[in-house]
Amino acid sequence: MFRLLIGLSILGLGLAGTTFQSGGLPMPDGRIVGGTETDITHYPHQISMRYRGNHRCGGSIIASNIIVSAAHCVNTLKGVEDLSIIAGTTSTIWPTGQELRVREFIMHEKYRSLNNDYDVTILILDGDFVFNESVQPIALAKERPEHDTVVTVTGWGTTSEGGVISNNLQEVEVNVVENAKCKSAYSITLTSRMLCAGVNGGGKDACQGDSGGPLILNNELLGIVSWGTGCARPKYPGVYASVPELHSWIVATRDANAKVGSIDFL
User: Fold this and answer.
1) Residues that are catalytic
2) Checking CA distances to 139, which of 25, 43, 70, 126 falls within 20 to 30 Å?
3) 140 falls in which pLDDT band (50, 70, 90)?
């Protein structure tokens, strides 16, 4: 089953002000497939994109008022009225941290929903996050690593296909899969703007709810969780929008909309 990884609308958490601290109904514990629980201070760039209070997708902070995520997370939305970003929280059940509304999103002009090529969007926030140990921007990778390189994906996605959204942030290590090998699984749907990662035999992967979230290497954003066939299936790696191939667009769009002086190391 082909998957996009947009979150299931399970949580019913309402919007608050700039600082968010609210409760919700308990849910069964879950995790990114094959992963373990982690803390937001280890991945302070990670955010939860909320639609009408529900976790929808992941994303990464790249400036105090700019998030990068997957285009397929927003391409069906008619506007931004019900869209917000929470940063600095480990839990989706008892989120603590900072919340800002989305003012505008800009999808890559070449994005194609047919095969998720150029699956990247920039979200411009209606305010600025205050950076601290739980809220930080991440640098952008400029080069692809060699195949088999160990990389990390994080998120609140489901523990299995069709499962429940995780209570707490999860991390899992996977290996970069060379595109030639990945094409044997996905054929013509794979493009040079995509990067594959998984493990031999399956069992570790991003899943529903992880879309838009980060694939990282050496504290740099290497990929954006995009799509795949099922979750953690053998012979079907996860597919990510490749940041090195999309680097110039991300930087240009960020710089055109970021607050002056908000970030200077990307």
Assistant:
1) 72, 119, 211
2) 126
3) very high
Distance CA 112, CA 97 (A): 34
Closest by CA position to 8, among listed 54, 52, 48, 49: 54
The confidence band for 92, taking pLDDT boundaries of 50, 70 and 90, is confident
- Where does the pLDDT of residue 123 fall: very low under 50, low under 70, confident under 90, or very high at 90 and above? very high
- What topology is assigned to 139-244 in CATH? Thrombin, subunit H (2.40.10)
What's residue 207's pLDDT? 60
H helices present in 141-260, as ranges: 179-186, 243-257
Q: What would the two tokens of residue 160 be?
A: 């299995």
- The model's pTM is 0.84
- Region 74-93: mean pLDDT is 93
Buried b or exposed e, range 25-47, using 16+ CB within 10 angstroms: eeeeebbbbbbeebebeebbbbb
What residue spans in the chain does CATH classification 2.40.10.10 cover? 44-137+247-256, 139-244
Cβ neighbours of residue 261 closer than 8 Å, sequence gap 6 or more: none
Q: Identity (one letter) of the amino acid at 135? A: V
